[in-house]
Molybdopterin-dependent oxidoreductase
Amino acid sequence: MDGSGLPEIRSTCPYCGVGCGVLLRPDGEGGIAVRGDPEHPANFGRLCSKGSALGETVGFEHRLLSPMVNGSARSWNDALQLVADRFSSTIAEHGPDSVAFYVSGQLLTEDYYVANKLMKGFIGSANIDTNSRLCMASSVAGHKRAFGTDTVPGTYEDLDEADLVVLVGSNLAWCHPVLHQRLLTARKKRGTKIVVIDPRRTASCNDADMHLALKPGSDVALFNHLLAEVYESGAVDADFVAHTNGFDTALDAARADVISVTGLSDTQIAEFCKLWINTEKVVTIYSQGVNQSTSGSDKVNAILNSHLATGRIGTPGCGPFSVTGQPNAMGGREVGGLANMLACHLDLENADHRAAVRHFWNAPAMPKAHGLKAVDMFQAVGDGRIKALWIIHTNPAVSMPDADAVRDAIASCPFIVVSDITGATDTARLADVLLPASAWAEKDGTVTNSDRTISRQRKAIDAPGQARPDWDILAEVGRRMGFASAFDFASPAEIFREYAALSGVAEQFGRDFDVSGLSKISDVHYDDMTPQRWPITPTRQGGRFFADGQFYHPDRKARFVPVRFKPPAAKTEPRFPFRLNTGRLRDQWHTMTRTALSPRLSAHLPEPFLDIHPADAGRLGVGTADLVRLTSPIGSAILRARITDSVQPGHVFASIHWTGETAPSARIDAVIAAATDPVSGQPESKASVVSVTRFEPAWYGFAVSRDAMKPTSDYWALSRTAQGYRAEMAGRAFVSDWVAEAKRLFGTQSAKVASVLDPNRGIARIALHEDGVLIGALFVSPTPVSVMRDYLQTLPGQKALDALSGRSPADLPNPGPVLCACFGIGINTILDAIETEGLMTVDAIGEALSAGTNCGSCRPEISDLLLSVKTREAAE
Ligand SMILES: Nc1nc2c(c(=O)[nH]1)N[C@H]1C(S)=C(S)[C@@H](COP(=O)(O)OP(=O)(O)OC[C@H]3O[C@@H](n4cnc5c(=O)[nH]c(N)nc54)[C@H](O)[C@@H]3O)O[C@H]1N2
Ligand SMILES: Nc1nc2c(c(=O)[nH]1)N[C@H]1C(S)=C(S)[C@@H](COP(=O)(O)OP(=O)(O)OC[C@H]3O[C@@H](n4cnc5c(=O)[nH]c(N)nc54)[C@H](O)[C@@H]3O)O[C@H]1N2
Ligand code: SF4
Ligand SMILES: [Mo]
């Protein structure tokens, strides 16, 4: 109990793969208060900005409340019968491979298990793939090639014990913030060295000893060079290499590569190799800068090769560490959610494995070959081979490469089912049948985080309307398709027991994944389950893998994979001279269906930006706050330019989060061609080629409103504020009547209008009031609008009569854009404190203002701010 009446419920954060424990306190009215669980081994009470703001993302207004068929509400009975009938008739007419499921690493293990069992065991097709194909597939492929299974050898404790942590293609500070804070705590104690390998200078570089800004895609060459240096310096661990095959061939391949393709200086390379070789306890963390590449699997193996050669694997403070993105990316791999895997780390294409699973499931049909991987799957949807598709817990019309083609493919498919918590997504809007799913705080199940820890997600509040858990919807469709006993699950605990028992069968084939110790877990025990790391058997519990030199290839040896540098698939050329990199922002989660509901999280970066180097911006005549158009061989996008030397000349960076709902011109995957890694099938999301030109609109606009507004211009970006919404806009078309346009935008005809209009100069300022209360204000100008945005956004819903000035009254300080999302502290407030109070460190700012003292993920930006002030002062 926590003093407020209702007990706190232990659960797990539904965002990233760190898998932080949360304590949820329902307020009895559908809301919840959220704090970090001090007892959870992933976070010990810490939460990042996204986890801390979870309470702001529950609520009913955005939710899908009942099943919809062709846009009309229908009963569950009608909707599910339709789904079962259409899948059954399509299979009867065109065979099992004419249908597919596209699922998600955010599903709970129990949901995922049922989906996979239904498709692979009972429909008899392997056409189930997941957004993990866009995320973890290269790591899976690399692990399997080296180890014989998809095993993450280490644990989070390794970050506490390492002396060197190398972040390769990982912006840990923003994407796994609680792990990053853990690393920084260890660094304070033992002086852990940190190296960042990333073409871009990221927030993770602020606390790093070295940043290697290599050329995109050149990681293989760098790690090959490292392997050769390991050998030259006599650092090879011969005893450990005796447990492996293929060292010589891998070394030959490594030596044949040319390090100059990395673009790094000889000194940087030498320093990095020296540090790596001379430090015994090294953890190499890698993420999407490695995986999302046409040489992603090779990058993974280049990293694994260096660890195998030195025997730095599976011992405290040592090892390669693929950090997972989604909360249950690991669980999805364990249940075999990918089109080329079988449940419990068994192989679909191995006849013995197949027979064992078929027997266990008592399954009528099992596919012999792997199914369509995500990119191929949507191509098959587009060309009519897939005739019925069920999309669950993912938004592919936004997140797949070649997103316009994917959107068109979904629109053209004869039968699309989408399960989501909201109908307001680019994908859900294309569904024939839309099914309301319960959200994370409304359902029970398990997830596995990056270090193999299985945690419970627990129901804290009731689902709104008719929403149901994903496993329940899937199981009922299974029953209605004629597989009554196989899908007769009454609870997630029942599914978990079956799954745990199946892992015991897999263990007979000598696989790593085994949770058979939980196969008899009672309902009560399942309810009370505390976080635990697999394997979980009567003889093994948690721990690390591979220190004993025992691997999962038939000869029990690991394999070195010989790899060679390969440039990204798309080549820059005069028409497309820039390399486009993409990635994540600190406070948004993917397609923003949840994080964009939080005003605090939306305040950090309320618009889609394109980061461009000052030299390139200068050459192209792009100034601060200008808009730019990106064009690639397959699509185009419009974003706001942000001029920064965090990107290299010739490179640009955009974030992945904007959608048809929030900024339609900035759906970045519309410009990204679908080139894939030949081994893993993972798309190259980080190395497209584009041209950049200044976008010249006839007008720029900025608006704030109390209720949702409906912008329609060439460029717009909408975000939440504490008082309603704010929008940036720009258009090419001449607007003759701005007052009429404002009424349309704010959805009112009756409001009282106050305006300043100067048509000759293209300036309009319009405020609409109802009962003296501001409901919307619009500012239009032929150049980027210059008003006090952070002040204006506080006015809707208030009796604000002075909005048209666009400025705060002189006595009201303007806090500036929010930097610390947890405490809502703006840049100007921090700058002011630095200058007036002479604060010199991030900690001092924390003491004075609390900024950066909760989740800590804004600390890198505060430190940047300090640096900029110090540099300015030094120059003065
Ligand atoms: N705030 C936030 N956190 C998240 C998520 C989110 O949406 N928002 N999503 C979660 C998910 S699903 C995932 S998968 C993870 C992803 O976590 P990360 O992989 O850390 O995040 P990204 O920003 O996608 O990419 C990481 C870095 O790769 C770099 N990079 C690009 N090309 C190369 C290259 O050729 N070599 C190298 N070495 N680096 C390169 C980019 O510049 C970028 O900084 O984040 C998880 N956490
Ligand atoms: N260019 C580029 N593209 C990328 C990436 C990149 O770095 N660059 N990263 C890729 C990666 S790593 C990933 S993981 C993907 C992520 O991309 P997506 O998976 O498409 O993104 P999300 O916004 O997480 O989509 C989750 C959907 O599930 C819904 N949802 C939430 N809770 C529930 C629930 O309980 N049940 C159900 N049924 N639905 C629910 C949400 O409303 C949302 O619509 O994007 C990929 N795309
Ligand atoms: S680091 Fe943040 S997003 Fe990730 S699990 Fe923890 S609280 Fe959630
Ligand atoms: Mo991901």
